[in-house]
Amino acid sequence: MNTYAIVTERIINLLEQGVIPWRRPWSAAGAPRNIVSKKIYRGVNFFLLSATKYVSPYWLTLRQANELGGSVPKGEQSQIVVFWRVDGASQSEAEPDLEKVEADRRNRRRFVLRYYRLWNVEQCELPQAVLDRLPKIQTYQRDPIEAAERIIANMPNPPAIEFGGSKAFYSPTADRITLPPRELFSSAAEFYATLNHEESHAAGHPKRLNRESIAEAAPFGSPTYAAEELIAEMSAAYLCAEAGISPAVIENEAAYLQGWLARVRSDKRLIVIAAAKAQKAADYILDGSCTTE
Known about the structure:
Elements: H1 3-16, E1 33-34, H2 44-50, E2 58-60, H3 62-67, E3 79-86, H4 98-106, E4 111-120, H5 128-133, H6 144-154, E5 160-163, E6 169-171, E7 176-179, H7 188-203, H8 212-215, H9 223-243, H10 253-266, H11 270-285
Parallel strand pairs: 1-2, 5-7
Antiparallel strand pairs: 2-4, 3-4, 6-7
Helix pairs in contact: 1-10, 6-7, 6-9, 7-9, 7-11, 9-11
């Protein structure tokens, strides 16, 4: 089974359990990160690690556990994270950087998607001195509404936003987001989650990231349309997590789950590629306001 299939199987298992990885509340402990480098996991790795039962955001490899003077007890189940590697090169812990991969592919360098295994610190037996040295993760002491507003205000070259009607959508032709009046949303979280979704579409406009799934007209229900919706869903999830806002509840969630299951099963590359493009969109929107670097 190749890496795309392994990731897809993990996502399908979550969806079948009723868990939508890009629509779940995020841990107040912070984004998942490596215990040694303190680097935050990005792209699809963010969802793979966030969808676990562990409270601690710290993850490590078996080798790292051993080097820290600890161990992973037998029987503890690992989680995978993915990385791109030039074919034939040695393994590194590089996160998926789709832009670099696509550029190098144009130069005929062959990249392959690989994975390695991690365990959460809660699964490991580590010296107390190591645990005592772990920095405390900042929980959401700030006002999430204020944080969400700051993210919106700091988006470079933002689209126009207007209020009216009963539907939320982004028009690439007009480069404009249209939202229902704020009072029609059931909560502030729902409003900002919806706005984040539409801003993620706007980030793909030709004058910004020039994402092909938004720059080119795609009919409703087409594979390109479905991919763009997943990109916006995942990108909005990154933005909600950054602000400390829980994603809005989905109406008719059962049908929503079945729809994503069908799409993910039909395209084994969809999740990994969409997550990388979603991360790129979120990074663009967060320019000047991102606090997770």
